[in-house]
Amino acid sequence: MGTHFLGDTAVLLGRSLRHVTRSLDTIITTAITPIAMMLLFVYVFGGAINAGPHSYVNYLLPGILLVTIASGIAYTTLRLFLDMRSGIFERFQSMPIARSSVLWAHVLTSLVANLISLVLVVLVALLMGFRSGAGVLSWLAVAGILVLFTLALTWIAVIPGLSAKSVDGATGYSYPLIFLPFVSSAFVPTDTMPGPVRAFAEHQPVTSIVNTIRDLFTRQPVGTDIWIALAWCVGILIVAYLFASISYRRRIS
Known about the structure:
By secondary structure, the protein is mainly alpha-helical. It has helices at residues 2-22, 25-45, 56-86, 88-93, 100-127, 136-163, 167-172, 174-179, 195-202, 205-217, 225-252.
């Protein structure tokens, strides 16, 4: 059964990736918005923001990486929604394939596409002056956190992709996720915020994830932030996966 599932997922993943490679503009578009934000904040607002001993692009990049992921998963919802509307899911169900492989193919396609977008953003950040003395293990830790965060948000994206009634409904949910980093430590230190806003910013998932990535990049002790970040990512991933699976079973039953 496991081999059957893996084989079916690999075939469907290849199909989804071919669709992505035929429309690379979606990946480029996904990367353009966070890159534009990075340019705006560094070159327009950066001089007015105290980012401590490091350059503002170094301070900003972890938050921009999360914005990139939040922007990219909207395309996952759209692709899933269009497959549902086109009847391709019904055709898949009539074939001898593992049912869950259809969803996993979309999720893994999202992961690949988002990783490409993240690489593009990091390359632009390097051109803007981003520098890190982090070693290989720290970079691998950053990559692991970003993969977990991508998977968590992608499984959230699966839910509206399966249940939305329109394109706007399928993609509209992503806007709160994109703007969540703005009320966190991603762009400015939380101690500059008024009381209630600061309390929210310090206890939402983006802040612990951003702080962890920033500390890894600057070779600072990560403290408890890394465990809080991992707990948020894994917790969201599990809950979103369960709700997405329930929604999928209802749609194909």
